[in-house]
Amino acid sequence: MKQEIQGTGTKKTSPEKKAGLHAYGIRENLSSAASSFPYLAPAFVPVSFPAPEYLYFSPGLLQLDLNIYREPMIKAIIKEQSENLYRLIKKVHFDGKYYRVKSVRSGGWEHCLELAVRIQFLGKLQGLAFEPKKTVSRKDKKIIYRSLILVNPHELWDEELVERWWNLQERIEFLISKILFHECIHVLILLGKTLPSGFGKTDIFLEYREMLEFASSEKLCPESCGVKYRLRNLAAFSPEFLENSGEKPDRVSELYEFLIHEKYSIKKTDQAFGLSWSNRKISRNYARMAASKVGPCPEYGKKDWEKEVFRLHRALNELYDRIDGQNRADWKMG
């Protein structure tokens, strides 16, 4: 990479080099954060963790002042679409600090939920949500759940967004709202699965669970079995996955639930913001993400692995189409 030499003998780093160094630093920070917060899938990105190319920054993006957004406006946009999600972020400022958003007593213990939201450019990822980290204080009889959301409005110059919002401030507020909405859905679903009964059972969690039950029902058995079959075939390419399955025998079912989780979150976000991700696009992206969660593409059987990912994509598309079927009365998204 080209560098300029100044008269003092000091090397002047090019903007591209600075961007690369900044991206590397953030990747290191993410790796550190992941050790404390088990990684949850990012929104709309077909990888299970940022690859180097997803962390490359345009120098122009790095120089843009993100503080032009109005936090109250973003919260108002989300409130208009979902009271549950608004209550989750109502007391949270988007500065990366943790804020207590809820506290209840159950069985002599106080259960507290703390949430942090940070907005920053993060390569090509749209957003990241980390599973709640549980901290127990027996002395105070308090259990604290901390969750972190990262929002990356890197698609500011997406052609469709530019056509809808010429004003940069309005465009960035819409984009942040959409990404934050999606990631908050992930957090609410995780909290519903993690927290004591009655604490995290929001309408969104109950609606998601209803979709999951429908997707796991006998009526969708051909489609669900087809997806799980392809996941097992992919597992055969990853000895590490098979070894871990000895400790966690239901890994395939866990991946299947992840795929339904993403389907629900994307569909809910699309409905709220007037967007439209086709099942073909969702299944293509998340088939590859699920395959990455099983294990990396092996060098010795790359072509066979790619074929199996494509078969998973087709099976997943059929499953998503059945879930969206117009003639069923078993499940209906509100």
Notes on the structure:
By secondary structure, the chain is of the alpha+beta class. 53% of the residues lie in helices and 12% in strands. The chain folds into two domains: 18-27 and 35-181, no CATH class; 205-323, no CATH class. It is built from twelve helices and seven strands. The longest helix has 27 residues, at 168-194.
How many domains make up the coordinates? Answer: 2
* Oligomer type: single chain
Distance between termini?
53 Å
Question: For the residues shown, what is the average pLDDT?
Answer: 78
Largest sheet: 5 strands, mixed
Beta-strand residue percentage? 5-15%
Q: How many strand segments?
A: 7
Would you identify the regions where 5 or more consecutive residues have pLDDT less than 50? 1-62
Q: What is the percent of helical residues?
A: 40-55%
Tell me the number of helical segments per DSSP (H or I, 4 or more residues long): 12
Give the overall form. Answer: globular
Order of helices and strands: EEHHHHEEEEEHHHHHHHH
Instruction: Decide which structural class fits the backbone.
Output: alpha+beta
Rounded to an integer, what's the Rg over CA atoms? 21 Å
Structure summary:
This protein is of the alpha+beta class.
